[in-house]
Design a protein that fits this description.
Order of helices and strands: HHEEEHEHEEEEEHHEEEHEEHEEHH
CATH topology of the largest domain: Aminopeptidase
Number of helices: 10
Mean pLDDT: 97
Low-confidence stretches: none
Number of strands: 16
Structural class: alpha/beta
CATH architecture of the largest domain: 3-Layer(aba) Sandwich
CATH class of the largest domain: Alpha Beta
Strand order of the largest sheet: 1-2-4-3-5-16-6-15
Radius of gyration: 24 Å
Shape: elongated
C-alpha cells in the first residue's frame, strides 16, 4: 500500500465525510449547512482555528510547533455542488432534488478535512502555518476564490496548492504540468434584432433566424481561420432561443456562448472578432444587434519550482506509474485568483474506474466518484505540506 499508516487509518472517515457531503449538496453561494458541518468537524481538532471571511466560505489555520522559516502554505478545496438531478444510483445519492455533487467537490472537501486532521495531530512535524481554504462557489463566476481573496483571507500566504479529481485519468494517477494548466473561461451574449412577419410574407420582415444561423456558422471560423492553429481556442454556442409560433418570424433571437483560450492576447482578440463578425452579418441582413462579453476565470499558471517539488514528492511516494505529464486542459478554475502575487501548483488526480462505474464525465447526472482516489489526494497533500513548510530545513540537508 503506498499510503503511510496515518493516511490508511483515515480512509473510513474520508469515505464517511464524502458520503455525507454527497448526500447533502448545496449550490454556489448557498453552502450554509455545508460550512456549518465542516466547522463542527474542524472545531473538534486540536490546534485548529477557524475564520469565516465570507458568508459560506471557511478557513482553517493550523500552526506548526517546529522551529523554522515561518512559511504560510495555503491549500484549497471547493465545497459547492451543481444544479443537476442525480441519476447515479448510489446508496448515498443526493437527498436534495435538482442538486448534485457531479464534479468531485465532495471528494475535494473530504480530502481537505483529512489533511486538516493529519496536520492537527502532527503539529510537531512542521513549522509555519497551514491555511486550509474550504472555498465556496467555484462553479459560479465570479467565484468564491475571488471573494475570499478580496476579503483578505489569503493575505500572508506564501504559496498555494490545489487539486481536482478527474475521470480523464485512472484512479491514483496524477496529471502534472508546469506553466499554463487551465483555460480562460468567458461568456458572450448576442441578441439579433430584426422585424417580425408572417411566414407567408418573409419579404415583409427581417428574418432573425436565418441571419443568426449564418452568424453561428461564421463564428466557427474564428478558431478555424482567424486564430493561429498553434493557439488552442474553443468558441461554442450553447443556447439559441427565438420564436413563439410555427408560422411567425420572430422579432429577435438570442444566443449565449462560451469561449476557452489560453493566451491573454488571443482572448482579447476573440472578444473583438465576435463583435466584428456579428456587426457584419447583421448589417448584411438589415438587422441590428446587442453584444455583451462577460470575462470569467483566467488561466491557472503552475509555478515551475513547485511543479518540480510536486513531481519529486509524487515519484518518491507513488512511483512513475502514477505520474502523467499532461498538456493544458480546457476546463476553467477559479483557483487562479489565489495566485495573484504568489506561486501555486494545481494537480489533476485521476478517479476513473470503469469496473465500478466511475467513468462518466463530470457535470453528468450519472457521475460517480471512485472513493479509492481519496487517500491518494490526502497522502499527496500531506507530503507536499510537510515538504513546503519544512523547505528551508530540507535545503540545509
Amino acid at each position: 500500500m503506498p499510503f503511510d499508516d496515518r493516511v490508511a487509518r483515515l480512509i473510513p472517515e474520508l469515505r464517511a465525510w464524502q458520503e455525507h457531503l454527497h448526500r447533502n449538496p448545496e449550490l454556489s453561494f448557498e453552502e450554509f449547512e455545508t460550512t456549518d458541518y465542516l466547522a463542527r468537524i474542524l472545531s473538534a481538532m486540536p490546534g485548529v482555528s477557524l475564520a469565516r471571511p465570507t458568508k459560506t466560505g471557511l478557513v482553517a489555520s493550523i500552526q506548526g510547533e517546529k522551529d523554522g522559516p515561518g512559511t504560510v502554505l495555503g491549500v484549497r478545496g471547493d465545497i459547492d455542488a451543481l444544479p443537476i438531478t442525480e441519476e447515479s444510483g448510489l446508496p448515498y445519492a443526493s437527498a436534495r432534488p435538482g442538486v448534485m455533487h457531479a464534479c468531485g467537490h465532495d471528494g475535494h472537501t473530504a480530502m481537505l478535512l483529512g489533511l486538516a486532521k493529519l496536520l492537527s495531530e502532527n503539529r510537531a512535524a512542521f513549522s509555519g502555518e497551514a491555511r486550509l481554504f474550504f472555498q465556496h462557489a467555484e462553479e459560479l463566476p465570479p467565484g468564491g476564490a475571488v471573494e475570499m481573496v478580496r476579503a483578505g483571507a489569503a493575505e500572508g500566504v506564501d504559496a498555494m496548492l490545489g487539486l481536482h479529481l478527474s475521470t480523464n485519468w485512472p484512479t491514483g494517477v496524477f496529471g502534472v504540468r508546469a506553466g499554463v494548466l487551465t483555460a480562460a473561461v468567458d461568456r458572450f451574449d448576442i441578441t439579433v434584432k430584426g422585424k417580425g412577419a408572417h411566414c407567408s410574407f418573409p419579404e415583409q420582415g427581417v428574418d432573425v433566424i436565418v441571419t443568426t444561423a449564418q452568424l453561428i456558422l461564421a463564428l466557427q471560423t474564428i478558431s478555424a481561420r482567424r486564430v493561429a492553429a498553434t493557439d488552442p481556442v474553443i468558441v461554442s454556442i450553447c443556447e439559441a432561443n427565438a420564436g413563439t409560433a410555427y408560422n411567425i418570424l420572430p422579432d429577435e433571437m438570442k444566443l449565449t456562448g462560451a469561449v476557452r483560450s489560453f493566451d491573454p492576447a488571443v482572448r482579447k482578440r476573440i472578444q473583438s472578432l465576435i463583435g466584428e463578425i456579428t456587426a457584419g452579418i447583421t448589417a448584411s441582413a438589415g438587422a441590428t444587434y446587442a453584444y455583451t462579453w462577460d470575462a470569467g476565470y483566467a488561466s491557472v499558471f503552475n509555478d515551475s519550482q513547485l511543479a518540480a517539488i510536486a513531481e519529486k514528492t509524487l515519484l518518491a511516494r507513488f512511483g512513475e506509474a502514477h505520474i502523467d505529464h499532461i498538456d493544458p486542459i480546457m476546463p476553467g478554475e477559479d483557483f487562479y485568483a489565489f495566485l495573484d502575487g504568489r506561486p501555486g501548483f494545481f494537480v489533476e488526480l485521476g478517479s476513473r474506474c470503469p469496473e465500478k462505474g466511475c467513468d462518466m464525465p463530470h457535470h453528468n447526472p450519472k457521475y460517480r466518484l471512485d472513493q479509492d482516489a481519496l487517500p491518494y489526494g490526502v497522502q499527496y497533500l500531506y507530503d507536499m505540506a510537510l515538504a513546503l513548510l519544512n523547505r528551508a530545513e530540507q535545503a540545509e540537508d
